[in-house]
Write a structure and sequence with these properties.
The chain is built from nine helices and six strands; from the N terminus they run E-E-E-E-E-H-H-E-H-H-H-H-H-H-H. By secondary structure, the protein is of the alpha+beta class. A hairpin with a 2-residue loop joins strand 1 and strand 2. The longest helix has 19 residues.
Amino acid sequence: MLSSGYEEAGDHGRFRVKAGDVIFHGQFEAHLDRFSETGAAVLNLPLPVGYSCTPGVAQLADPDTVARAAERSWRDAVELLFSLAISRKLQPVDWPDELAVALMRNPSLKLSQWGEANGIAPWAVSRSFGLVFGVSPETFRARARARQALKRIRDTHAPLASIAVELGFADQSHMTRSVKQLTGIAPQAWRSAANGFKTGRKHGV
């Protein structure tokens, strides 16, 4: 963020972004942005192949330095960004934030139980969360579960059926549909691609 600010609510929570903040987005991430009438100046930098980041927020003391580097080369700007950005931990401000964090940690969380434990009626949980995040808590939870499944599919050798059970899917077919809906690609294809990449790296390809 180069100037002014906005609010972003998405798959990794809600961020109130101001000048100097950096938002790192993950693959297949969706989010809703709310800008004021005055707008804001935002610099978007795609990450080169081979780069990875943890979704979240960080800070830059001088964002204009990265903006000037981007005028010459976006790759140089990304290198500079990674060298200067300092991770910032955000604390939930209200209960929709708290519910989003809880769902990211545990996509098997039962919304009715969470609402009861926090003194919030089921209709209020659904309506108020949807107003903030632009999707229902059920949809948010489904996307969080699908992302966790994708990570385990790509990063582990666990059988797909075991991953489905571990993450609370009804069965492997349910997981397959969820991952394909999120990414457009079925779990078995992700597993094959991940294994091929690991094999290629092993042989220096």
